[in-house]
Specification:
4 strands, 4 helices, alpha+beta, Alpha-Beta Plaits, about 55% helix
């Protein structure tokens, strides 16, 4: 039995109409040139559109940048000012917190081996102040170097305090305590919270 000869698969060139090889080559080159010309035409139109869009985008960025930059800057400055104000308010004691102020003074005295023997409290509201000033007159007994440590520690315990008057009296007899009297003004914050 004779087996049939399988047909060869026809390639692209074989499917072209019966022409000479040179004519087929010219047709293929013509098709490639036409496709390439079409792509160049589309690309030139897109680049012209892209240039126009780039100019429009640059103009819009200038317009929006000029209008938003000051607003954004002012909002950032406002937020920073509010944060600084809150931090400053936190350092001022509450005018109703006189017992806490006295507790802080007692703790400071105890830490420095000084004894508070008496206190006198007065409150005043200076014109143009942020709140009332609590004036505390304290009488102490201990040793003069310990009083100095007490005074140095006031800045950390009560940062809004100011020493107005200080009087030291050295002991006349050995073994007795030195005494001191000082008036401490503590600025409190009594303004309205906004």
């Amino acid at each position: 039995m004779v087996e049939p000869i399988p047909e060869k698969k026809k390639g692209f060139v074989d499917r072209l109409p019966k022409m000479g090889r040179i004519s087929q080559l010219i047709i293929i080159v013509g098709i490639i040139v036409a496709v390439f010309a079409a792509l160049l035409f589309v690309r030139s139109k897109l680049s012209a559109s892209q240039t126009t869009l780039d100019k429009t985008l640059a103009n819009l960025q200038k317009i929006t940048g000029v209008q938003q930059t000051p607003q954004t800057k002012y909002e950032a400055d406002l937020a920073q000012a509010q944060a600084e104000t809150e931090a400053a308010r936190a350092s001022f004691p509450d005018p109703q917190g006189v017992p806490k102020i006295l507790d802080d003074l007692m703790a400071l005295a105890e830490a420095n081996d000084v004894y508070i023997t008496g206190t006198k409290i007065a409150t005043s509201t200076p014109k143009g102040g942020v709140g009332p000033v609590v004036s505390i007159t304290v009488t102490l007994k201990g040793q003069v170097p310990k009083f100095e440590n007490f005074l140095l520690g006031l800045d950390t315990k009560l940062p809004t305090s100011q020493i107005r008057l200080t009087t030291f009296t050295a002991a006349e007899k050995e073994g007795e305590y030195d005494t001191a009297s000082m008036t401490i003004d503590v600025q409190t914050y009594g303004g309205s919270q906004q």
